[in-house]
Amino acid sequence: MRLRSRTAVLAGALVLAIGTGVPAQAAPLVTLDTGHVDVVDVEYADGGFELHIHHETQGELDPADTLLRVLPKAKTTVPDDPAYAFLGAPGRSVWILPQVQDPDLLFAGLSTEELEAGVFTGDQVTVTLCAVSGPGKVSVFTTDAVGNPGVVFNSRDGLPDATALPVAGHQHANWAFSAAGTYRVTFHVSARLASTGQVVTSEPMTVTFKVLNP
């Protein structure tokens, strides 16, 4: 697995640094602001879940070393439509990474593509948004062919929020932020094993977004 390989390399560098008396360097921060990114990419191995970020060109990334930037182009206003009240008052500013790919912004999703059928009851897992810290609210929502929204997560009305995803699947959605600034967004994943009925839950994973003003 690529993440394990990266961890092994970092561990080797630490041993080398100690052996030569050179201070170990922190991993460089990877900054992403365009391209296809799975904000939560789920794997299951050795009886437990492993969560990471996955980018179309950078591969698997440790969230602790990764910054997802929401560029100024994402800034828009809340529609004057009661169906979008979960985003705030009509006309207020909101930054949205869209469900349909824009080459100038991040194309953000959730992925269970590496999970196999038959392992979990109902062939599904639950992704939970546990906590949000930052200057505003975070919402994740889908839109249908005629523009009707379906809320997946919404920190405005309290957390945790959870959604069920099929294994071997992939979901893109709109990721909305109500103010500019830095957000730390924490997720975990759980599922029931089909073989034993035991519920397995991942460790929390915190993803950092930086929302930029024009």
Automatic annotation (TrEMBL):
Keywords: Signal. Residues 1-26 form the signal peptide. It comes from the Bacteria. This is Surface-anchored protein. It comes from Kibdelosporangium aridum.
